[in-house]
Design brief:
- The chain is of the alpha+beta class and 733 residues long.
- It folds into 4 domains: 296 residues, Na+/H+ antiporter like fold (Up-down Bundle), CATH 1.20.1530; 153 residues, no CATH class; 77 residues, 2-Layer Sandwich (Alpha-Beta Plaits); 76 residues, Regulator of K+ conductance, C-terminal domain (Alpha-Beta Plaits, 2-Layer Sandwich).
- The chain contains 28 helices and 8 strands.
- It has a 4-stranded antiparallel sheet.
- Strand 2 and strand 3 form a beta hairpin.
- Helix 1 packs across helix 2 and helix 19 packs across helix 21.
Length: 733
């Protein structure tokens, strides 16, 4: 038998046992997985040990991919952007101060400067997967603060890539290169924007047009295939596989299939996620804990105190209420995947000491173990530290400052220019790498250059036109012309700048392929851009491309997303989407019968059933398992409602007395059934049993209808419950 199979059997059995125990103790399942990993690791002499660590490591990486993919499905980029600058403020504040605390802790321990810098980077970021799993296990995903925490964590993961690039540059050159940092951030932003825009234009369109051919099985294959495709793309350009999985999840999150995909892959995610957390538990070593107990204690205390204090302050500065800030800050008191990556980076570059990896693993295990208890501690603090007075109850709200016509016009123009510039650069680079070689091979060098140039410019034309002409007649532009005397001149100036940019792009293509003088290239580029601006066909194609993107971006929101949820942001009430569990006793009951508003203080704003949506349902609306309920309420009422909904589920109990049984009743000479029609016998009406067949004297079996007359010698085969059949036999006896 393969070693991998025996290893998987061991870790899954241990994980199953420990999670059952932790479930009975009402503790998060993550802790059970970590304990299972510790038991299956090489550090205990009296328990079976996993042999093929390399294979388990690969499976754990797949677990991270699925966890990040599911995270992207839950929290899309569009939702983060709607939150405004608040997550950015909190993420930058927390990461900066935690990095400083990590460096300070390393300095107090007497470590080298490079070790201090790397430890600061490890402590700067909390673990997205661990917090996500802890929230899910503790039933906190519907709480308002959970969405804010996940938004900040996503930004930390993105900034973590910049941190890794920065640390690599520091390790190689022993100095901080500002230009290297700026280039790495620009590169990251380029690829994120490119992937999101291209993905939103292609993936939702593909799923929508093939919707009738995609069942649950096909949806699993397609979605996982797209996920791993983006993982390969991200890895090929030097980014983490987790980022690629998250990006594809965020793209699919904007489609109407998001809930179906999340439901379809949930079992796969749970399996591989369990293996990941078990593999983390296998890293802990009692010997390392004893040998480096002081650094471990110091770093654990630094994380717990630093994240609890600076995390809370960061969320307060970003506009959260006091209770939400406390819950958010105390939730982030751990480190995870990026800490392991940074520690491995330092070892591979040979700039950090070997003890950092076991110390970081031990710190991660301990802080992960303490995370649920820190969340519970924050909850108790919030309960005892009641906000009193109208001033304390009033949440810090930052209204979005209404942009004037000038700021609004500039923002729209810059957004449009950046998006289409990224697409233009990507298209040009891709075609020069692939198409140019093919054209030269088929047509020869110069003719091939000409053919390639024409094709490149045809593809660039719909991308260059919006850069020059888009938003010139928008509401902001009209207000700018009307309210300011210089408004028309300013708009014309921006058109000139954008026109010169488009000319420069076309000039680059022509100059790269053509052997003529540069001034001819400039004249030709100007003429081509003027033609692009005047062409109605290019204008129509460009508008169609943009409409497809906008439609894909808004499809899920228009189809199933509650638009009114945005009006509740920053208030005590918020929207939560809860799925009615399978086996719920609410199935077949109406909202009036359940008295949801009266008992739980929430309002059911909508019921989503597959692709059918019932807005503002009445009291007579009936619920069915797997219905998605959009409820409006505060944190406490939504949590109570969620607990009630998940607790009122029918438990499968094996009861032999209720099982359907089959007996044979022989009709004797003096039987009360002789000469009676089956429908008049009372077998069905009085005893809730059914005659499924009649056997005559010769042993022939037939299906008898309700009008069949029972005769002496017949054998009636009767089906029913054990209790009802006994009653029937007693009466007939």
């Amino acid at each position: 038998m393969s070693q991998l199979i025996s290893d998987l059997a061991l870790i899954l059995i241990l994980a199953g046992i420990t999670t059952i125990v932790f479930k009975r103790l009402k503790q998060p399942l993550v802790l059970g997985y970590i304990l299972a990993g510790f038991l299956a690791g090489p550090n205990l002499a009296f328990t079976p040990t996993v042999k093929g660590h390399e294979s388990i490591e690969v499976w754990s990486q797949i677990g991270v991919i699925f966890l990040m993919f599911s995270l992207g499905l839950e929290f899309s980029f569009k939702r983060i952007l709607k939150g405004g600058p608040s997550p950015i403020i909190a993420a930058c504040f927390i990461m900066t101060l935690m990095w400083g605390m990590g460096c300070g802790a390393g300095y107090l321990l007497g470590w080298t400067p490079i070790n201090c810098i790397f430890v600061g980077g490890m402590l700067a970021m909390s673990s997205t997967t661990i917090i996500y799993k802890a929230f899910d296990d503790m039933g906190l995903m519907t709480r308002r603060f959970a969405g804010k925490v996940m938004s900040v964590l996503i930004l930390e993961d993105i900034l973590g890539i910049v941190v890794i690039v920065l640390l690599s540059a520091v390790a190689v050159s022993n100095r901080l290169e500002g230009s290297e940092l700026i280039l790495s951030m620009l590169k990251l932003g380029f690829f994120l924007l490119l992937w999101f825009v291209v993905g939103m234009w292609i993936v939702p369109t593909f799923l929508h047009r093939n919707r009738m051919f995609i069942n649950k099985e096909t949806l699993v294959i397609v979605s996982i295939g797209l996920c791993f495709l983006m993982v390969v793309v991200a890895d090929s350009v030097g980014y983490s596989t987790a980022l690629g999985a998250f990006m594809m999840g965020s793209i699919l999150a904007e489609t109407v299939e998001a809930e179906r995909i999340d439901s379809a892959i949930s079992s796969i995610k749970d399996l591989f996620g369990a293996i990941f957390f078990v593999s983390v538990g296998m890293m802990v070593s009692p010997a390392d804990l004893v040998a480096h107990w002081l650094p471990i204690v110091v770093l654990v205390a630094t994380i717990l105190v630093g994240q609890a204090v600076f995390g809370t302050i960061g969320y307060l500065l970003s506009g959260s209420s006091r209770n939400d800030a406390l819950m958010s800050g105390f939730s982030m008191t751990q480190i995870g995947e990026f800490a392991f990556i940074i520690a491995a980076l330092g070892e591979s570059l040979g700039v950090t000491d070997g003890f950092l990896m076991p110390v970081v693993v031990a710190v991660s295990i301990i802080t992960t173990f303490l995370t649920p208890y820190m969340i519970k501690l924050a909850s108790k603090i919030c309960e005892t530290w009641k906000e009193t007075g109208e001033g304390a109850r009033r949440e810090v709200r930052k209204e979005k400052r209404k942009l004037g016509p000038l700021a609004g016009f500039v923002r729209k123009v810059l957004t449009q220019a950046v998006i289409y510039s990224v697409l233009s650069i990507a298209v040009t680079s891709l075609l020069f790498v692939s198409l140019l070689v093919m054209c030269r091979h088929i047509f020869g060098h110069w003719v091939g250059n000409a053919v390639c140039g024409v094709l490149v410019l045809l593809l660039l034309a719909p991308l260059l036109r919006p850069i020059v002409m888009k938003n010139n007649s928008s509401d902001e532009a009209r207000r700018l012309r009307k309210d300011y005397a210089w408004g028309d001149r300013f708009i014309n100036f921006t058109i000139l700048i954008r026109f010169l940019f488009a000319v420069n792009v076309v000039y680059y293509v022509i100059n790269f392929l053509s052997p003529y003088r540069w001034y001819w290239h400039v004249l030709l580029a100007v003429g081509i851009v003027l033609f692009i601006i005047r062409s109605r066909w290019i204008r129509r194609v460009s508008m169609q491309m943009e409409s497809v993107f906008i439609e894909n971006l808004m499809r899920r929101e228009n189809a199933s997303g509650p638009a009114y949820a945005r009006q509740l942001q920053g208030r005590d009430l918020h929207i939560a989407r809860l799925s009615l569990p399978e086996g719920s006793t609410w199935g077949g009951k109406t909202l009036a019968q359940l008295r949801i508003g009266g008992r739980n203080g929430v309002h059911v704003a909508a019921i989503v059933r597959d692709h059918h949506r019932i807005n503002v349902p009445g009291g007579g609306s009936m619920l069915f398992p797997h219905d998605v309920l959009e409820v409006v309420g505060d944190d406490q009422s939504i949590e109570q409602f969620s607990q009630r909904m998940n607790s009122e589920v029918a438990t499968a109990v094996q009861d032999d007395s209720s099982m359907l049984q089959l007996i044979c009743i022989e009709v004797g000479k003096d039987s009360a059934l002789e000469g009676v029609l089956i429908k008049d016998s009372g077998i069905r009406s009085d005893y809730h049993c059914m005659v499924v067949g009649v056997e005559d004297r010769k042993g022939n079996m037939r299906v008898a209808g309700a009008d069949y007359q029972i005769t002496q010698g017949n054998k009636l085969w009767v089906a029913g419950s054990h209790e009802e059949l006994n009653k029937l036999k007693k009466v007939l006896a």
